[in-house]
Write a structure and sequence with these properties.
With 471 residues, this protein is of the alpha/beta class. Helices cover 38% and strands 21% of the residues. The protein is globular.
Length: 471
């Protein structure tokens, strides 16, 4: 597959080729160009030329085409889901859900009314009209390459922005397939996709014609984007991951808590920014919770995502597998121990893939990198606590502020404690739930801006005030 620019497939002969491999077995499943600065510039030029025509189409016209795009995606959901599974690794059922959710996000934004308003003041007729920010660079992660794309693309299109997308080098193919599905729906240059590496991304976000940069990924890359884009002053939003904590109070319904928490830690092999990554359990119920979670972990079926029996697939790439392995080994060396899992599975049939068994760790503490950093894998450290005030301080101490959950039968108390958690989303008796209508994002230093909801749309709009003297 080539880059998708101006509704045409375009190579990048000077940039080389990147292989895309199935993380479950290492097989090559495709190749894409590593787009160089010239190719990126061509994509930006196409988006720049398409801006005026896409904006003048009007809110209603754009929403109609976005709705049509959602229909097209749903009619090709099986093909898209298979493509997503073989390049990302997640089970097919999860891929199907991601594709369906992406179509739902498009429909949500296509159903909104323009957020303008009019009023009178001192003989003036005042109109506040939403105008598109302009040309947007969307830089995407590998863990949810379809869902996160639509969190950015849907509001951008509805707002009247044209876009250039840079998918992760590990998961570029499904984004290109999505662009192809929109070829006969959107005018040329509205959506462009340039696969590549970090240099490709840097060429895109630093192009002076880019008005807005939307990035989801690692903290250090986010800092680099802020630094490198400063001379051009585009509007920048950053979603920089999380280290979400869950707190189980002693009055919680343990059956509900254990069932709800387990897959929030291990879905997509733990590679979710709002997954439960550290678990604090009141000491009175600690042993029961650990035993329950360990038995669930030992029963998980690992395998290729296209196998219907598979419940958890591999980690997406070798660097991520190495990172998780090192964090677990470091914790073991510091006195921690696994009560389930602890390393790659002893299964010859899985040896070619990036598999790591679902792991429950105990005897861990907050100072271990496994707990204090975002390990982004299928490992759940479980720690006891005695005092609620103390545990809230521990939850807030890492500096991550994306999400967190509390499990209790006293919802009023839970809501009060939730207000003390410094994070963008607080869940009570659930975790890792999102809704297109609700804003999503971290607190300062771990994220800038919001996605989803009206707040997500506002990131792609510049309100223009028009004052008319009718005296």
């Amino acid at each position: 597959m080539d880059a998708f620019i101006n509704n045409q497939w375009t190579g990048s002969p000077n940039g080389g080729i990147m292989e895309v491999r199935d993380p479950a077995n290492g097989d090559m499943v495709g190749s894409v160009p590593r787009c160089d600065r010239h190719t990126v510039g061509t994509a930006v030029e196409a988006a720049e030329l398409a801006r005026e025509g896409w904006e003048v189409l009007g809110w209603k016209g754009r929403c109609g085409l976005v709705e049509k795009f959602a229909d097209r995606i749903e009619s090709h959901k099986e093909d898209l889901a298979r493509s997503l599974t073989v390049e990302q690794g997640k089970p097919l059922a999860e891929s199907l859900h991601e594709v369906a959710s992406a179509a739902g996000t498009l429909r949500y934004y296509a159903g909104l009314e323009p957020p303008g308003r009019c009023f009178e003041s001192n003989g003036l007729s005042i109109e506040v009209e939403p105008r598109p920010v302009g040309l947007c660079a969307l830089v995407l992660p590998w863990n949810y390459p379809v869902g996160v794309l639509m969190w950015k693309l849907a509001p951008a299109l509805v707002a009247g922005c044209t876009v250039v997308c840079k998918p992760s080098p590990y998961t570029p193919m499904t984004a290109l397939k999505l662009a192809e599905l929109g070829r006969d729906i959107f005018p040329p240059g509205t959506i462009n996709v340039v696969p590549g590496d970090d240099e490709t991304g840097k060429a895109l976000v630093t192009d002076r014609r880019v008005d807005r940069v939307a990035f989801t990924g690692a903290l250090e890359t986010g800092k680099d984007i802020l630094t490198s884009t400063a001379p051009n002053l585009p509007r920048v939003s950053l979603e920089l991951g999380g280290n979400d904590a869950a707190v189980v109070l002693k009055d919680a319904d343990l059956k509900t808590a254990c069932a709800g928490l387990f897959w929030t830690a291990f879905r997509n092999a733990g590679q979710i920014c709002i997954a439960t990554k550290r678990l604090y359990v009141h000491r009175d119920i600690f042993s029961r919770v650990v035993k329950n979670l360990a038995s669930r972990a030992e029963a998980v079926v690992l395998g290729h995502g296209l196998d219907q029996k598979t419940q958890m697939g591999p980690l997406n790439n070798m660097p991520q597998l190495e990172k998780v392995t090192q964090l677990v080994e470091d914790a073991n060396n510091r006195g921690a121990r696994p009560v389930a899992g602890g390393g790659p599975p002893n299964d010859e049939g899985l040896s070619r893939g990036h598999f790591f068994s679902p792991t429950i760790m105990v005897d861990v503490d907050d100072d271990m990198p496994l707990v204090s950093s975002e390990q982004f894998g299928p490992v759940l450290p479980v720690m006891p606590f005695d005092d609620v005030d103390e545990v809230i301080d521990r939850v807030n101490a890492t500096g991550y502020g994306l999400g967190g959950s509390l499990w209790t039968s006293d919802l009023d108390r839970g809501r009060e404690l939730g207000r003390r958690m410094r994070c963008g989303t607080v869940w009570l008796n659930t975790h890792m739930r999102v809704d297109d209508r609700a804003p999503f994002g971290g607190v300062p230093r771990r994220g800038l801006g919001k996605e989803l909801g009206l707040e997500g749309l506002a990131e792609y709009l510049d309100p223009q005030t028009v004052m008319i003297n009718r005296a």
